[in-house]
Amino acid sequence: MHERTVRNAFREAVESYCNQLSATGRDPRELRLSITVITTGTLSRETVEWIHRAAHDHVRNLLPGARVDSLEFPVKAGVGEPGHRFGFRHSATPAREDHGREHGAAAVLTLCYDRDFVWPCRIGAAARWLALGRLPGQRPGPEALPLPEYAAWLPRGPLLLVRNHQGRLDFARSTQRPRYGIRVDGVDLPLGRSLVAAAAGEIEYRDPDSVTVLRYRVDWEGQHV
Q1: Nearest Cα to 160, choosing from 126, 183, 185?
Q2: How many CA atoms, within 13 angstroms, populate the side-chain half-sphere of residue 172?
Q3: What is the fold, at CATH topology level, of the domain defined by 3-92?
């Protein structure tokens, strides 16, 4: 499996898929895309990053307002020639024009790393905290919002917690892996403490050797500015 071949084939496939969706005449703001890149071997980090950029660039340019909700890279030895296969799915969320936030509205927390890595997380209204981060072996559910395992620049484990409660989004620092410091919008988040998220800002993960910054944005279903 040559990674250059995978890149070229993916570029053609995502462009073709976006053009097909565009030809249907649907409002692209309604579209949420899920993309799977299946290969016979693990792709290098450089190729994973390249595919992310290609996916988001094509969707942004060919389907303005659409969003890539997930991009996964499973490895399957049984994939036939040429050693890769791409899967594309889409769902639709009707574009709404009302401006008021409904009681108990779901929040969409969008995390961005280095512009090209974008992870939207839908969070329903509830008093419980959800673990947010690189959580090996966990799937999205009522207690966790796992970010992709390939995002090796993020520390492992549920260091950061999040909840949508009483009409606001809160962040909290768990007590796990205390060697990592977390700052939200320039404010230190001590172990076991919480703070209210802004409409947009930054989350910093710090250890003695490095700093990783995620940008975030909070949107509310049913509210459009």
Answers
A1: 183
A2: 17
A3: 60s Ribosomal Protein L30; Chain: A; (3.30.1330)
